[in-house]
Amino acid sequence: METTSRAGAQENSGAPGGSTTEGVPAARRTVDGYLRAPFPWYGLDEAFIGRRWLMQVGTAADGTVQHGAMGHGDEPTIKTSGEEGPEKERFAVVVTVAASPVRRSGDGTGTLEATTVSSAAWLAGAGLLSQTWPAQLDHSMRDNWLDQQTEVSFELADDLEGPDWSALSLPVDGVPTPFHYRESEYGWVLAGSTGSGVHIGAYGRGMSAYGLGFSVVKDITTYES
């Protein structure tokens, strides 16, 4: 399976946007983690004029940065899927994943799975799920629900040509680029590849994906830690 392994992603800091308790974001990494990445980071392009903020980076066992996320708009908090109202959050999170073939692990004892567009799709899908749970569930049941839905997200990400995905073209560094796109009751998820050695995943709620554009982040300090 080409998708980044679920166990590995959880060890490496979990899905982007993960939270430890309701409404309290997980501890964020400093900008140093982003600066250590050997690949370019992507965010929304200059057409987006709202708030930008850092989230988390995911690392391999040897400390190599493999992926990370950057937020745009309202900072999401965990909310039930049935919540509505004028305070509804509007956000888009962009996940950058280094494109890598199957490779030896840092300690030389095994191999690491390839990272593909499916990897970006799964990280984005898991990130969106981490911000939501059904209104009828209490906190004690949320972990079971999240495990089940994450499994579904993983399977969907591994079948990007399936009926649950549609095609969407969005600009990446000004160049029209094909993406895989799907919507759910919790928000939307998309994933595609760039010409600069990374895959892009994104998820959001309250902000349409159809008008988005992506570009390389030239100045990481424009994102708040």
From TrEMBL:
<feature type="compositionally biased region" description="Basic and acidic residues">
    <location>
        <begin position="72"/>
        <end position="86"/>
    </location>
</feature>
<feature type="compositionally biased region" description="Polar residues">
    <location>
        <begin position="1"/>
        <end position="22"/>
    </location>
</feature>
<feature type="region of interest" description="Disordered">
    <location>
        <begin position="66"/>
        <end position="86"/>
    </location>
</feature>
<protein>
    <submittedName>
        <fullName>Uncharacterized protein</fullName>
    </submittedName>
</protein>
<feature type="region of interest" description="Disordered">
    <location>
        <begin position="1"/>
        <end position="25"/>
    </location>
</feature>
